[in-house]
Amino acid sequence: AAESDSLANDLAESVVRLVADLVEARRAEGRQLRAIIEGQLVAMSRLTQAAEACPGRQPEAVKARLSASIAALMEAGGLDPGRLHQEAVLIAAKADVREELDRLSAHLDSVGELLAKGGAIGRKLDFLAQELGREANTLCAKAGDIALSRIGLDLKAVVEQFREQVQNVE
């Protein structure tokens, strides 16, 4: 009987230690994961700022590209200058990535707020990862400039890494 009681006590103490060790291991893993995600957040913010400042998206650069395209088309002849102007305005409007940059910034702010809040944020981070991916894809699709396209591709890569890490968050 004494031997059974001793074994039961040893077993109970072992279970308590194992649970405590497991909890500490999960906390350590969470701290490491948070550091990784925060680093990715910084990288995504830096790339969004780089896209914002990219010389190729400045109105003068967009105008120069459109002017060169229009001049080449005009040389081919047979094009109505008024209609060509309307098409150029539509193309310029479609090439503007202001909305995408604004949404990227808003989503990144939301990620930062969720990380600061803590708790069960995995699903919300997963949703934001999807939204960040959409905006990065649209940024790349609209990029009329090689530098902006490269920034967009780098952003897509970091967003994908972020999405993979978010899958490990509860």
Keywords, separated by commas or semicolons:
6 helices, mainly alpha, 0% strand, 170 residues
Indicate the topology.
Elements: H1 2-53, H2 59-76, H3 81-95, H4 98-117, H5 122-142, H6 146-166
Helix pairs in contact: 1-4, 1-6, 2-3, 4-5, 5-6
Your description of this structure?
- This protein is mainly α and 170 residues long.
- The chain has 6 helices and no strands.
- Helix 5 runs antiparallel to helix 6 (146-166).
- It starts with a helix and ends with a helix.
- The model has no long low-confidence stretch (mean pLDDT 89).
What is the structure about, briefly put?
The chain has 170 residues and is mainly alpha-helical. It is built from six helices and no strands.
Question: What is the helix fraction of residues, given as a range?
Answer: over 70%
Regions with pLDDT < 50 over 5+ consecutive residues? none
Please provide the count of β strands.
Answer: 0
Order of helix and strand elements from N to C terminus: HHHHHH
Range of strand content = under 5%
Described by its quaternary structure, the protein is single chain
Q: What would the principal axes of the Cα set say about the shape?
A: rod-shaped
Largest sheet: none
| pLDDT averaged over residues | 89
Q: How many helices?
A: 6
Distance between the termini: 44 Å
